[in-house]
Amino acid sequence: MDGAHDMGGVPWSGPVQSEPNEPMFHAEWERRAFAITLAMAMPGGWNIDMSRFAREDRRPEDYLSKSYYQIWLAGLERLMLERKLIASDEIEAGKPLHPTKPVAKTLTPDGVASMLHRGGPTEREVMSPALFAVGDRVRARTIHPPTHTRLPRYVRGHIGTIEMLHGVHVFPDSSSLGQENPQWLYTVSFDGRELWGPDGDASVKISVDAWESYLERV
Amino acid sequence: MTGHDHDHHHDHDHSELSETELRVRALETILTEKGYVDPAALDLLIETYETKVGPRNGARVVARAWADSGYRDRLLKDATPAISELGYAGRQGEHIVALENTPHLHNMVVCTLCSCYPWPVLGLPPVWYKSAPYRSKAVKDPRGVLADFGFELPEGTNIRVWDSTAEIRYLVLPMRPSGTDGWSEERLADLVTRDSMIGTGLPKQPHEIA
User: Fold this and answer.
1) Chain B: nearest CA to A218, how far in angstroms?
2) Chain A stretch 197-216, residues whose beta carbon is closer than 8 A to a beta carbon of chain B
3) Directed axis angle between helix B55-67 and helix B69-77, to 10°?
4) CB atoms within 10 A of CB A154
5) Shortest Cα distance from B199 to chain A (angstroms)?
6) Cβ proximity of A210 and A186 under 8 Å
7) Which of A121, A200, A215, A133 lies closest to B120, judged by CA?
8) Catalytic residue status for B164
9) Does A108 touch chain B if contact means CB atoms closer than 8 Å?
10) Which chain A residues are closer than 8 Å to B112 by Cβ?
11) Is A218 on the interface with B (CB under 8 A)?
């Protein structure tokens, strides 16, 4: 979807500001929100693409006014509400008010290390040859799906060069809707001036990782 | 957020932050009582990322690559198994690619769409990496970003920006500072900063560490 999360090239005032000796979390609630989000994916059964869509699918003023972990929290609440794991009146009351919906499994302390070590690999078996090879010229398609996509707006319609093949990976546009639909994944690089015009920096190249259906041969 | 009652007399700096804090506490209570989360597992997740996983891991990878050319070659050819040799693997690092800086090429990593970052080697991303200024500017004006971080690249150095739009995670292999011949890996690792592995900084120089 076209949303405020898609920030590449969007003008912002002010510099990038780093914080010296930054702590991992800035408040106790950030620690808990982070951990609850990681833990709830197991009973909740959603994947990373569903999580990302739940975070980004909101009005720009909402997305931009929330801090990073507030967006995580809003996304988590939405996923749980959609699956009826919790209800809004329970959040307001601060306690369970309705019968518990059974879940297949939960994260126990002795499952934490293996869950983190396993991660969520997205590479899948190759079922068909890659359409493109290193050095091929391709155009990123102009698409504006209302659903989740990982093709950022600033490259759409622009011509780039295939630089790497990464094998076949779960396709997020489908995965966010519950189907893996794995496709070849490429790194495609673009010249600074191709993306940003004559005022762009000619000594800069920018790449995105793009699934095959995002690309067309030129 | 809805349903907050402001009619009663509590202090007026009842901030957005504390409302969020209350909401998170409420959620944890509900989810614990329903049996969906185990607070002990939450504690362990937090402890893992606060104490075990962080940029010191990535620094060890870089130091090994500086000290051992065979390792460097393996890292640049297929980073995921090479990094796994040092025991770092898993969530948000399932498919890692290492990017070598040279006198002619400087690599910088961003995620314009969210906050993708190689957790097993760098830990959780800092706030600036997830911020609008960095996510917007890195792909359009990377030299301006470097200026924000207080440094400038020599004339003739090209910049390559990697937008992490898929599940491939990128780790920059910075150039080894001169004057470090014969240093142990442990000592070399002290030179490797988090930002030098993202591409928004350079390693420390030998005189900067004790």
Assistant:
1) 22
2) 200-201, 203-211
3) 120
4) 23
5) 13
6) yes
7) A121
8) no
9) yes
10) 6-8, 152, 154
11) no
Helices (H), B114-181: 119-122, 127-130, 132-137, 142-148
Write the DSSP assignment of B71-111 as a string of letters. HHHHHHH-HHHHHHTTT--STT-SEEEEEE-BTTEEEEEE-
Whether B184 sits among the annotated catalytic residues: the reply is no
Whole-number Cα distances in Å, B7 to A26, A104, A161: 30, 43, 61
| Interface contacts A/B by beta carbons within 8 Å | 260
Are the Cβ atoms of B159 and A203 closer than 8 angstroms?
Answer: yes
* DSSP per position, A188-214: EEEEHHHHH-TTS-TTEEEEEEEEGGG
Contact (CB, 8 A) for B197 and B170: no
Please report, in tens digits, the pLDDT of each residue of chain A (218 residues total).
Answer: 999 999 999 988 789 999 999 999 999 999 999 999 999 999 999 999 999 999 999 999 999 999 999 999 999 999 999 999 999 999 999 999 999 999 999 999 999 999 999 999 999 999 999 999 999 999 999 999 999 999 999 999 999 999 999 999 999 999 999 999 999 999 999 999 999 999 899 999 999 999 999 999 99
Distances (CA, A) of B73 to A79, A105, B38, B98, B193: 43, 42, 43, 10, 21
Domains, chain B: 3-51 (no CATH), 55-208 (3.90.330.10)
> What value, to the nearest 5°, has the Cα angle with vertex B158 and ends B59 and A194?
120
Residue of B nearest to A74 (CA): B1
Residue B10 has a CB neighbour count (10 Å cut-off) of: 9
Q: Which of B15, B114, B131, B136 is catalytic?
A: B114
B178 noted as active-site residue: no
